[in-house]
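Q: What residues go here?
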């Protein structure tokens, strides 16, 4: 059982309202048992987050590990990656970084004017890479609405609809998150074309629920829209929390947008002890 009686410092960050609790363990270790992760995710009795990220030393500038709000692991989290890249840019003065994740090696760039770009890597377009439960055409799944399946280190299911704002995401999202075609569950997006290379998108994230934005979902939607012939490879995506620019290039899917470091805090020993008692 980990010793959780020592105070723990964390950072609260967000990218377009997609919010994160970030622990920096480059100079130490962070024990994160499921009970503590769930306690921290509680927006009333904890801190609240869409995803948690833990920064550790790696072969590159840093290694990032992600957890969803229900404590389940996620190999990718685009907005959290951008937030952490911005923090490292600010502390180091660098304008380029190489970060490793369970998704693979990701490159980040400081674009100036408070904007941060991350290359989320090449999309996964084959059924077994995403993964789906059986061999099928990922461009048109045998689901009502013919959504597109895409992998960005985590699975995605993208529906193109006439009006994304009219979809009752609170019931629509969980219906497809647990669809049997997705053995590892899936993130669900609904998107509408509102202009040339301009999409309106809303997100249901697996293990979290409705979020104001999602980086990997934005990348998956941009890839799906281009594959469907709806847009070019560079797309502006309007989310509930703001705007991301996504560009599917030869070297991967680049995502650019603002980030915010809201505050740095310390978990009290009493809070840690209560979480420890639940282990």
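A:
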């Amino acid at each position: 059982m980990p010793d959780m009686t020592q105070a723990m410092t964390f950072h609260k960050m967000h990218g377009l309202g997609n919010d994160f609790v970030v622990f920096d363990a480059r100079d130490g270790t962070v024990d994160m048992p499921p009970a503590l992760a769930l306690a921290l995710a509680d927006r009333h009795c904890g801190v609240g987050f869409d995803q948690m990220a833990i920064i550790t030393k790696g072969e590159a500038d840093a290694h990032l590990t992600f957890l969803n709000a229900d404590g389940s692991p996620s190999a990718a989290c685009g907005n959290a990656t951008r937030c952490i890249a911005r923090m490292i840019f600010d502390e180091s003065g660098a304008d380029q970084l190489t970060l490793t994740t369970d998704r693979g090696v990701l490159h980040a760039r400081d674009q100036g004017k408070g904007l941060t770009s991350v290359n989320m890597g090449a999309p996964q377009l084959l059924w077994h890479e995403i993964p789906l439960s059986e061999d099928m055409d990922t461009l048109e799944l045998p689901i009502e609405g013919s959504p597109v399946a895409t992998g960005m280190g985590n699975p995605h299911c993208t529906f193109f609809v006439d009006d994304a704002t009219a979809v009752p995401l609170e019931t629509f999202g969980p219906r497809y998150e647990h669809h049997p075609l997705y053995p590892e569950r899936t993130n669900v997006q609904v998107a509408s074309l509102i202009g040339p290379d301009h999409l309106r998108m809303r997100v249901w994230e697996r293990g979290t629920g409705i979020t104001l934005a999602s980086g990997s979902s934005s990348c998956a939607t941009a890839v799906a829209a281009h594959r469907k012939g709806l847009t070019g490879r560079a797309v502006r995506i309007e989310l509930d929390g703001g705007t991301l620019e996504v560009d599917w290039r030869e070297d991967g899917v680049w995502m650019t947008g603002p980030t915010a470091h809201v505050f740095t805090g310390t978990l009290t020993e009493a809070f840690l002890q209560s979480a420890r008692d639940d282990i």
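A: Context that may help when evaluating the design: The radius of gyration is 18 Å. The longest strand covers residues 104-112.
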